[in-house]
Amino acid sequence: MLIIGVTSGPNNLDPRVGTDDVSAKAAQVIFNNLMTLDDHLRVVPDLAERLENPEPTRYVVTLRRGVKFHDGHELTSADVVYTFRGFLDPTFISPRKGAYRGVKAVDALDRYTVAFTLKEPFGSFPVNLVMPIVPDGAGPAFRDHPIGTGPYRFVRYTVDDQLELAPFNDYYGGAPRNDGLVLKVVPDDIMRGLELRKGTMDIVVNDLAPDIVYQLQHEPALQVVESPGTDYQYIGLNLRDPILNDQRVRQAIGYAVDRRAIVQHLRRGLATPAVGILPPMSWAFEPDVFVFTHDPAKARALLDEAGYPDPDGDGPLPRLHLTLKVSNLEFNRLQSSVIQQNLRDVGIALEVRTFEFATLYADVLKGNFQMFTLQWVGGAVADPDILRRVFDSRQTPPSGFNRGFFRDPRVDRLLDEAARSTDDDRRRALFGDVQRIVAEEAPYISLWYKTNAAVAQRNLAGIHLLPTADFIFLKDVSRTSTRDTAH
Fold it and tell me: Mean per-residue pLDDT for 65-93?
């Protein structure tokens, strides 16, 4: 058995409902998605054999034949229809329902073919088929005893202790290369690190502070496997604020922040400086955009131009005051103190306020902030439609994620056309134009993209992290020998 360290237990093992990190990770190995994402975040078949788009509002999925659920019955169109019709049922409660508001109907055409009919054309619809498939008739008890088609089957969950999964030897992709997984709940970072050192834990993925990963790199019995990730950290700005409504002030902040210092020292190199919300491995990523360098002199010149001259030369008086809200995690406190010093160097007095995450998030949704730091995580940025959800002027909370009230008619027009188009080359060009405009307008100050890091026993082979750090790679991990602690 491989012992995987996680921070908490899963809230709900029904993948239609459980969206917390550990529930999602468990779903990645218990279930298969209808479609999945490749290394460039393109939507590719998984349980589907192929996906066709015969007309703008119609998608037809042909299923693989012979795929078995853990109880032995074959996957058919009935299971796919049941999974997706749940999201159209007004009585079914799920945080995922919003993604399917544009679906008019889901119908089985035969035993292995399903048709999705949309209310209007939507080029990003296929990413909504990256969804685990549950068996026809899965009811309320399913959350506690899930049955999927994935490489591991559910054995038992001991609340706040561990989730046990056994290999499913009839898995369509071939039996796992190990004899099962235990997702072991260890809430404390330092304790997870100690268990890795002792050899009582086999692997931890993205759940250790950079300082701890840095220390464990030097342990002879351990290995650190890295890959570029999709998680994106940024400073959000409230464009309804009279100071931050000025593009020159926003750009001054962008030039003031020293991203490389944050990446090298606070993240211990486990990140790369970010240029926008889409990660560089995305098929729609636009590399040719305006990029902030660390240039305090340029920041001061922009503040002069915006009408905020230095009141006392090189004296202590600030040009202006701003407030930054952050969550009370230790890393966020350290990062905000670096940002505070960076802004002080160009004459901006920054007050940093720390909050419990739930309080911070509620304030952000209400627009009750000048500046905040948050992070887009995992698959959230996998599809370029995230640009519409974040930067379209009609996507302000609660319906969308335009929390800074950014408004640009050019961006709205480009995003409308991209949403209607099903031609990926055309969509890439449109999304590229959006990224160029947003980079210059600076409604977000991009900080960094996270580097995925798995710390594992050195005797494990087959560790390959996808950009989203999904747990599906665990099926290919095998133990090559007993643990060697010799130097």
Answer: 97
Closest CA to 283 of 42, 2, 453: 42
Longest dimension (CA), the chain: 77
pLDDT tens-digit profile of 114-154?
A: 999 999 999 999 999 999 999 999 988 899 999 999 999 99
Same domain for 311 and 421: yes
Q: Do 433 and 287 share a structural domain?
A: yes
Q: Which amino acid is at 437?
A: I
What residue spans of 176-318 are helical by DSSP H? 189-198, 210-216, 247-256, 259-261, 296-305
> Which amino acid belongs to residue 127?
V
Domain boundary residue, one of 139, 172, 197: 139
Non-local (6+) Cβ contacts of 349 within 8 A are 318, 320, 321, 322, 343
Is there a domain that residue 203 lies in? yes
At 346, list the tokens: 């160009």
For 451-476, the pLDDT digits (tens) are 999 999 999 999 999 999 999 999 99
Q: Based on the domain organization, do 243 and 383 belong to the same domain?
A: yes
Beta bridge partners of 103: 118
Asked if residue 465 lies in contact with residue 25, where contact means CB atoms within 8 angstroms, the answer is no
C-alpha span between 98 and 91 (Å, rounded): 14
439 lies in some domain = yes
What are the structure tokens assigned to 412, written together?
């709205």
Overall domain count for the chain? 3
| Residue in 252, 448, 279, 423 with CA at minimum distance from that of residue 350 | 252
Tens-place pLDDT, residues 192-216: 999 999 999 999 999 999 999 999 9
Contact criterion met (CB below 8 Å) for 478 and 461: yes
Examine residue 426 and state whether it is found in any structural domain, yes or no: yes
User: Which structural domain, as residue segments, surrounds residue 107?
Assistant: 32-139
CB-based contact 37:130 (threshold 8 Å):
yes
Q: Read off the pLDDT of each residue in 257-279 and give the average, rounded to a whole number.
A: 97
Listed in sequence order, the DSSP H helices in 145-245 are 189-198, 210-216
Q: What is the pTM of this model?
A: 0.90
- With contact defined as beta carbons under 8 Å apart, do 357 and 327 qualify? yes
In the listed set 118, 139, 160, which residue is the last one of a domain according to the structure? 139
Cα 71 to Cα 149: distance, rounded to the nearest angstrom? 9
Q: Are 34 and 112 in contact (CB under 8 A)?
A: no
Note whether residue 487 is domain-resident: no
Pull the structure tokens for residue 165. 């999964």
Residue 24 and residue 205 in contact, taking contact as beta carbons nearer than 8 Å? no
What pairs with residue 466 in β-bridges? none
